[in-house]
Each structure stands twice: as C-alpha cells, then as structure tokens.
C-alpha cells in the first residue's frame, strides 16, 4: 500500500481480468467533479438477475388463470331473451280462448224458409248491442244457427254446424230434463270436446204450454229454452245465457268469484290434498265412525277426474277424538238447540286440539284443503249455525277460503239435554254420509270460485240447472280451465322474471344445469299453453300452463339456490387481496427495478463500444 501512496495513479486492469469485473462498474472517484459522467462499462451486462426476477413475475401471471378457474362459479345460461319474449307476448296479447255459439231453433210448424231465417238470425245474434265477448278470457266467438222444422233443416253457411238434423224433435222435450239433456248431447256429437274449439249450444223449442218460458242449463255445453217466444226475444235470450253462464259462470258483475282476484286453492306444483276428518268432540258422550273408504272415494272419484287438467288431487281421511271447538255457543229454547252465530265462526276451528295437518301426500308446495265433520258433545247438541238474517243454515256448514270447510253434524235423536251413551261407537249411515259429501262438493265448488248451487239463480225467466254427478258441469269445467290457464301463465312469467333478475343481481350465484333445463322446459310448456289457447283448447292449455308454473317454481326453489349464501364481488376480492396484493406488488416492483437497472448498464456498455469505435 505504501508503494502506491501519494500522487501515483494505479495501473489500469489488464484485459485478462475484465471478466472479473463484468458484474460491477468502477465506483466514481471521490475527487471527481459532480458533473462528470460515470465511468463507462467495458463488459456486457449479465441477464441472470433479470431472468430470475422475470421468471418469478411470470409465474404469478401464469398462475392467475388457474386461480380464477379454481374459484369460478358454475352458471348455466338462462334464456333471458326467451323470458322477455314471453313477457311481451303475454302483455301485448293476453291469453284468450276462441269459442263457438250455436243456436238451434226447433219449430213444430213450417214458417219462413229455413235457410234465409238461419242467416238472418245469425246476423242478429252476432250484432247484438251488448256484444258477446263479455269475459276477459273469451276470444273470437263464431256464431252459427240451425233452423229445423217439419221436413226441413238448414244451417247458416259461415260455420259448419255440429247439429245432427232430425235426431231431436220438439216432442222429445217432454221426456224429462235428464233424458233430453243426453239426447241433445248425442245430437251435438259430444258437445265439441276433445282437442278442438269448444262450442256452446242454445236450443229453442216451440211450446204452447201456459207455464211460460223456461230455461234449462244442461250438464254439458248446451242449454235449451222451452216456450213461445218471438225471434227478437230469442236473439236476446241466447246472448244472455251464453254470456252469463257459459262465459262467466253465473257470477254477477262486482261479485267476488272466479276471475275476480281470488286465488284457486291449488299448490304451485299443481297438487291438492283433500283431507276429510271426522271429529268427535267428546268421545265420553258418543263415538262415531264412517265408511269413507267405500262411499267417500266412490263419490269423489268423478270430481277428482274432472279436475285433473288443473290439479293432481289426492284424497285422505281420518277420525279424531277429543276435539272441542274454540268458540262458544248459546242455548235458544225457541230454536230447540244451541246456536252458533256467524261472528263466532272465525274462532270455531281449534288449532290447538285439532291435529289435522297429518297428511303424508302433502309434500313440497302442495295445497291441503281440510273438510271437517264436527260431531258436537252431548251438552251442546244439537248445534245450529245461525245466519245474519236470523235464519238457520240449511246445510249447517261454512267454508274458510283457502283452508277448507266445516259441516256441523248433529247425531240422530240429538236434543237439548241429551243423555250420554257411555262412549258407544256408531257408524254414520250411508245416506247421511252421502248428504254430507254433497255439501263438501258444494264447498269445493265455492273454494274454486263457483257457486255452491244455482237454485236461487235466474234471469227474467224461470231457470233450472241440472246437477252433474261429477260435481261440475262441463261448461263450468271449461270456465275453470280457462281462468286457471291464464292465472298459471301469468304466475309462471312472474316466477321466471324473478329468477332471471335474481341471477343477474348475484354474479357469484351458482346456476346448475338442471335449473337452466327446467327454465327451458317451463318456457316450452308456456308456449304450448298459449298455442292451445289460441286454438280454443282450454283443457290442454290448462295442463300445459300448470306444468309451466310447476317447472318455474321448481327452478326458483332449487336446493342449490336456497342452501347457499352468495357474497358480492367486493367480498370475493376482500378475501384474496390481503394475501395476493402485498406479494404481487413486491414482485412487480422488483421486476421493474431490475429492468431499469439492466437498461442503464446496457446503455453504459453501448456507450463504451461507441467510444472504442471512434478511437479506432
């Protein structure tokens, strides 16, 4: 060290030692002026540090897609465009069912030519001032007229007539309403059933009977008018019968009923359970049983079959004991029994003691309708239901909307001060059970929005109604099918729109392939229901609409949707950012710093090469 002290300049390193200083540049002289440039680099800078830093950074970039894939949420694509298209169709063209109106005039004596009279009456019926389409579910109405007299039969030319000329005459009307109803059904070829537009027929029969004009509404899709009326009255009457009954079910304007905002008592999956219960209030007094398995099911099977297009119905029965009512009754000596007022009805059902909800068939979103036969105890027997006008109820029964109905059944020989029978078991007679079930069928009609019966129903003339063994006339079933199809289509649309909106609002929501498939099948069923509605096939449309709603509900309430809590995208980033952000930031900064250093050293080496080139 002493040898190189002083002002002697150390020798430059030899070319053989250039490799040893290739990774380091000479430090600037401490005595050099501040404005001097750093010494040039005489060797090419190495890339080992840059490659190592870049490889670490690239490993993070390559692993990012795998991270995103591992946290990816499976989302089956929903047909949002098809849902929007269904919404536009239903709102712009609400479902409506075209139908036919056929008027038949049976004349006992020849009059004006039948062909010209048929065309004249058709024009008169079609151009009635009040119009025929008075129902929200009614579409285009095709009118046809047939005039049959002795030796001639002619129909209007616009629509093919289903009437079989000569199969029914005016003389057949005296054979009884039930017989004549079946004759008309046969003469009309089954009443326009099957997969085709429904046709409703009104038959006018000339009669000189002094009893006046009588209207009879049959069990199928026809009615008949017996009496002496002129053509103008006949035209007015055919419109009234068609609109009031065949289209509106006898529901007066402004009266709550079907199509007036009431919901049908059918589960969202299209299933209904009819649960019939016999309640013995106090088995210490008497115990009653019933033969429901034979009599009840035999009477209810036609009803279940008739309602099949709109509901899959299961029937159950049970007998319960120790089931007192919750409300109080008071004794009335004038009426000879205990009286229950209408104000006490809301408190009649004892939910604490009546264990009615024991159905095994009611699964998922099925609807259970309870029908209860209440046998009062000896101290409150007989028990009567008093109407607001002070009169006693003829059926001694009441309904609870969307719940079911109750029949108060007083045992035979029951009177004030009845003595106990020490709990002896007695079976309800077949006749009394059948009468009770008829009341229940009437209550079921009311729960579906129809009238329990039409005995007090009429127009300007005497009106009679034939009771069907199915509990529902065919024209009533058509009415239920139409309204149920419309209601289910709108409910299906609302459910699908809610599901689509829910999926769009939750990007992290799992949407299984099964959900997407259910939505597609629901849309197909809804389109089929609309297509059948435009053809006037109400029963097929109701079946498809029920299936569309059930599939939409299944998709919306799928277990994969209900069982998981979905977090927002912000929550997703909040989980992973505390780990990845610091590490990624340091790696990125190191890569940038190393790249800058390499560029600086490369520039020094380029400058050195340039200086060597100029000196040489």
In short:
The chain is α/β, with parallel strands linked by helices and 616 residues long. It has 12 helices and 17 strands.
List descriptors.
616 residues; alpha/beta; elongated; disordered N terminus
Summarize the structure in words.
The chain has 616 residues and is an alpha/beta fold. It has 12 helices and 17 strands. The protein has helices at residues 48-70, 80-92, 114-126, 177-187, 231-247, 292-306, 430-447, 474-505, 513-535, 538-556, 559-562, 569-615, and strands spanning 97-106, 138-149, 152-155, 199-206, 214-217, 222-227, 271-280, 287-289, 312-321, 330-332, 337-341, 367-375, 383-386, 397-400, 404-408, 425-427, 462-465. A 7-stranded mixed sheet has the order 3-2-1-4-6-5-17, sandwiched between helices. A 5-stranded mixed sheet has the order 9-7-12-15-14, covered by helices on one side. A hairpin with a 4-residue loop joins strand 5 and strand 6 (222-227). The radius of gyration is 43 Å and the shape is elongated. 33% of the residues are buried.
Unreliable spans are 1-35
- Number of DSSP E strands: 17
**Beta-strand percentage range:** 15-25%
Number of H- or I-type helical stretches: 12
Order of helices and strands: HHEHEEHEEEHEEHEEEEEEEEHEHHHHH
Average pLDDT value? 80
Which sequence of strands runs across the widest sheet? 3-2-1-4-6-5-17
Shape: elongated
N→C terminal distance: 35 Å
Alpha-beta content class: alpha/beta
The value of Rg in angstroms is: 43 Å
Percent of residues in helices comes to 25-40%
């Amino acid at each position: 060290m002493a040898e190189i002290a002083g002002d002697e300049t150390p020798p430059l390193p030899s070319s053989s030692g250039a490799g040893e200083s290739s990774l380091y540049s000479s430090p600037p002289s401490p005595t050099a002026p501040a404005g001097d440039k750093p010494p040039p680099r005489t060797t090419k800078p190495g890339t080992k540090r840059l490659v190592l830093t870049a490889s670490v950074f690239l490993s993070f970039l390559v692993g990012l897609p795998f991270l995103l894939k591992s946290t990816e949420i499976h989302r089956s694509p929903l047909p949002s465009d098809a849902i929007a298209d269904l919404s536009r169709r239903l709102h712009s063209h609400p479902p409506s069912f075209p139908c036919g109106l056929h008027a038949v005039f049976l004349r006992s004596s020849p009059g004006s030519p039948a062909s010209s009279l048929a065309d004249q009456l058709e024009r008169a019926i079609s151009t009635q001032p009040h119009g025929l389409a008075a129902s929200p579910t009614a579409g285009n109405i095709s009118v046809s007229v047939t005039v049959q007299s002795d030796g001639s039969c002619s129909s209007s030319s616009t629509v093919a007539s289903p009437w079989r000329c000569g199969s029914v005459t005016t003389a057949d009307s005296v054979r009884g309403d039930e017989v004549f109803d079946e004759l008309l059904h046969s003469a009309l070829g089954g009443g326009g059933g099957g997969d085709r537009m429904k046709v409703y027929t009104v038959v006018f029969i000339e009669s000189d009977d002094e009893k006046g004009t009588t209207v009879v509404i049959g069990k199928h899709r026809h009615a008949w008018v017996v009496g002496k009326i002129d053509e103008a009255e006949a035209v007015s009457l055919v419109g009234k019968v068609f609109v009031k009954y065949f289209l509106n079910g006898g529901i007066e304007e402004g009266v709550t009923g079907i199509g007036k905002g009431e919901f049908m008592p059918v589960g969202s999956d299209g299933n209904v359970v009819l649960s019939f219960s016999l309640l013995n209030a106090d088995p210490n007094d008497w115990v009653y049983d019933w033969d429901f398995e034979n009599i009840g099911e035999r009477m209810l099977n036609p009803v279940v079959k008739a309602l099949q297009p709109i509901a899959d119905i299961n029937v159950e029965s049970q007998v319960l004991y120790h089931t007192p009512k919750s409300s109080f009754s008071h004794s009335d000596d004038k009426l000879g029994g205990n009286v229950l007022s209408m104000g006490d009805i809301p408190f009649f059902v004892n939910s604490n003691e009546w264990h009615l909800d024991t159905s095994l068939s009611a699964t998922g979103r099925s609807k259970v309708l309870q029908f209860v036969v209440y046998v009062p105890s000896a101290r409150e027997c007989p028990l009567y239901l008093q109407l607001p006008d002070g009169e006693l109820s003829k059926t001694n029964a009441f309904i609870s909307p969307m719940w079911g109905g109750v029949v108060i059944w007083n045992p035979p020989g029951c009177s004030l001060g009845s003595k106990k029978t020490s709990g002896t078991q007695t079976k309800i007679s077949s006749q009394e059970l059948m009468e009770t079930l008829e009341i229940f069928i009437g209550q079921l009609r009311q729960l579906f929005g129809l009238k329990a019966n039409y005995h007090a129903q009429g127009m300007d003339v005497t009106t009679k109604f034939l009771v069907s063994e199915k509990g529902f006339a065919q024209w009533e079933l058509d009415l239920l099918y139409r309204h149920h199809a419309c209601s289910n289509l709108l409910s299906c649309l609302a459910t699908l729109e809610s599901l689509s909106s829910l999926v769009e609002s939750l990007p992290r929501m799992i949407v299984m392939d099964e959900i997407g498939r259910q939505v597609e099948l629901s849309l197909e069923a809804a389109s089929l229901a609309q297509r059948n509605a435009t053809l006037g096939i109400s029963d097929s449309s109701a079946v498809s609409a029920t299936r569309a709603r059930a599939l939409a509900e299944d998709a919306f309430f799928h277990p994969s949707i209900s069982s998981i809590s979905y977090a927002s995208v912000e929550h997703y980033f909040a989980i992973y950012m505390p780990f990845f952000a610091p590490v990624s930031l340091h790696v990125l900064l190191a890569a940038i710093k190393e790249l800058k250093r390499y560029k600086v050293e490369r520039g020094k080496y380029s400058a050195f090469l340039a200086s060597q080139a100029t000196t040489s």
